[in-house]
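Quick start: what a row looks like.
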Amino acid sequence: MTSPPPGPAAPPASISSSQNRSPSALPQPRLPKPATAPSTPVPPPASIPAAPPTLGAPSPAKVAPSLPRPPTGASRLPPPTGAPVSKPRPLYVLFEGQWYEIDKEEFVIGRGQKFSDLAIKDANISRRHASVVRRGHDYFIKDLGSTNGIEFEGQRVDNHKVNDGSVYFLCDHELRFTFTPPNPS
């Protein structure tokens, strides 16, 4: 459809109702573009895909784009700094004249060798009686739901911070803890 060239519009001659003119035959006025409209079309943002033009039928409900997920096992922690991380000092326990080094996150004490790191052969000791747990640079002795519990200075404890020289009793068995490495003799 072409429109006549712009110019002064002539006043329309009186049209009688007998004349059958279509509205498209009438000259259409040209309106100037608004001052705030950009002169070039703005492309859609790159993160939002442009919808394809549709004819006739309404488009189905739009689904929000999903964000990429981090790979499995990826850490959300910041990358390590250049400062060296100090390794926590090991804890040592003396049991029946033998020293054991505790240098892991959880050291289990119990009746059987299958379930524990330090086995105590006594029917009064539970299979998994207690554990020594490392939290940061500190160690804690924790009761694992045993029947006879853990005793420290005559009191039953469930979760207790281990200090250098602390002595705990599991039934009649003495456990003496220290941070000083034993003499190899």
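That is the whole record. The chain has a mean pLDDT of 77. The chain is about 0% helix and 25% strand.
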